[in-house]
Every structure is written in C-alpha cells, then in structure tokens.
Amino acid sequence: MVPAGRQRRETVRMQAAGLFEQNIKPLEVARRLRVSPKSAYQWQQLWRDGGVQALASRGPSGSRCRLSPRCLEELAGYLGEGPAAHGWVEDQVWTAARVATLIGRKFHVSYSVSGATRLMHRLGFSPQVPARRVAERDERAVTVWKEATWAEVKEPGRTAQATSASRTRPGSRDGRPGDGPGAGAAAPRS
Q1: pTM strictly above 0.70
Q2: How many CB atoms lie within 10 A of CB 145?
Q3: In a 3-state reduction of DSSP, which class is residue 42?
Q4: pLDDT band at 27 (very low <50, low <70, confident <90, very high)
Q5: How far is CA 129 from CA 57, 87, 116, 168, in A?
Q6: Number of neighbouring beta carbons within 10 Å of residue 143
C-alpha cells in the first residue's frame, strides 16, 4: 500500500517528465504543476541525466524497520491484549514508552519512544498519555466540592459600569465636551 501523498508526488514528477519531453521550461513546469521552481529544476536535471526512470520513486526513505513482518504481527497481538496482560495493571493505556519497553522485552530490540510511536501508528494503534492523578483521588468528593463549596468560594464577576481605556483618567460622561468629536452622535447611556 502506497501512502496517498507519496503517490501524488510520483504522479507530479511523471507529469513533469512529460512536460520536459515537450521542451517546456522548468519555470513553466513549476507554474503548471504548482511546485517550487527549485523542484522543477532538480527534476529537469534528473530527467536529463536518467530519463523518466530517474524521476520514479525509490520507495520510502528513512531507516528500515528493525522488526520482521512476523514480529510486527506478534507485536500487534501483544498490543491487542492490552497493557495489563504485560504487567501494567494500573491503567489500560499503551504509552509509547511502554511499547518501547515491550519491544525490548519480547524481541530484544531497542526502540526510542518516537520510534515506538511511529511503529504503533503503522500498526493502527495510537499512543495515549495517561492523566496524572493521585491514586487516592475520590471522584465523588471532588464532584460534591465543585457543586457545593466552589459556588460559595468563587468571586463574583465584575459589575457593568463605566470604564476608561486611559490609565491616567477615569471615565466620566460629565467630562466630555459638547462640541467635541462624536458629540450628538448617540444618546448618552443611562
């Protein structure tokens, strides 16, 4: 399965090759295909040196997966069993750090947390970050406190009153000149 973005990029490069064959300049190719001029010039050079095949995709970049397809299937099975089946009983959350540890335990391969995250996404899982809560937290007591005590403790909001944007002078309706800008534009508020 080829990701849609990679497939689109390959299609655009092949379209560029077709335009180069028609002697269309790189700037025009860039405009037509909505790519940067730098890309168009690089593609033209590759096309000149190696033809259409030089613009073909060479597959995914980056380092290859250190787990075999069989190990990936096993890992997906382990992840499907849940964290409790592998010693994490405090919650049912697969974090990337836990998955990296699991890979090390089961397959004797070291993965970074970010590498474990990418591997989880590849297998259709998403790492989750557990909420940091005290183990002794009493949810019922928290709810009762929010409903009863918080309403009493909370300060009331500011009341609506005349305010001023000036730091030096408080707002005053009486201090406005009658012939100044905006005079008579609107009735004074009461």
Answers
A1: no
A2: 12
A3: helix
A4: very high
A5: 36, 17, 14, 49
A6: 10
